[in-house]
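Appendix B, Record 12. Input sequence as logged:
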Amino acid sequence: MRSFSTIVTVTGTFMTMAVVLNEVFGSLFA
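Logged structural output:
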């Protein structure tokens, strides 16, 4: 279960970073 929890945490972090980067690039190139 520990590995599953780690995967969920990493995935959540990656998704959050993707959203932040999307917002940043969106504001830069808008």
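The first helix runs from residue 2 to 29.
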